[in-house]
Amino acid sequence: MKKGKKLYEGKAKIIYATQDKNLVIQYFKDDATAFNNQKKSTIEGKGVLNNRISEHILANLSQIGIKNHLVKRLNMREQVIKLVEIIPIEFITRNVATGSITKRLGIEDGTVLKEPLIEYCLKDDALGDPLIAEEHIYAFDWATKKEIEKIKKMILRINDFMVGMFRGIGIKLIDFKLEFGRIKINGKNEIILADEISPDTCRLWDSVTDKKLDKDRFRKDLGDLIPAYTEVAKRLGILHEQSNVSAVNITKLSTVKKKSK
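Given the sequence above, the corresponding structure tokens read:
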């Protein structure tokens, strides 16, 4: 598939047009950001790992009936995805309290929640992705009540699947961010899962040691981000293409290169 002009560049990915107006190419960058883009670095190999991990998870979600934008992985860094109209909401699902919620509410870090908690943030970097109520979504027509009800059911199904998937490989799914979009199917708008699911968008802790295997290693200056992401990929069983992996020296890419300002 031929890559066309750049349509959009975000913090972690670039979207390119293709000859098919309904499909685009998603390129995974090595850029790492945190705290609403206030902290930035380039970590070689991160995009490669996120591409593989996200492809694996989205493909498995498709198998249980969760429609998503993934069509296929093209290469080490690119996927063909469906072009969707993104709903401007980040859906945060929490199984264990950590991060911002503990600071906002004074909850002890690591508190296991009785049931999954879904929070909504407006997808707007300039505003710092503020936390919003469900009523805000309806008041400002970001999504309809019917759409949100469908999304919540999808989120709980996704969470249930992913908790089990990660538990099976010795990892606790602490929390994660999802995005959804609208797409025309048979002339009607449908809601499908979009964006990526990777250690960039999930908090993943080792089940025994609570070692962080996600972007908190960058946020909190813990180091060894690439080895942590590689560990997740290995446990998922998706690093069998050893020749391709070694081509980017995955096991040696723990050096973080600061971007010039």
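The CA atoms of residues 6 and 16 lie 4 Å apart. Try to locate this feature in the token string yourself.
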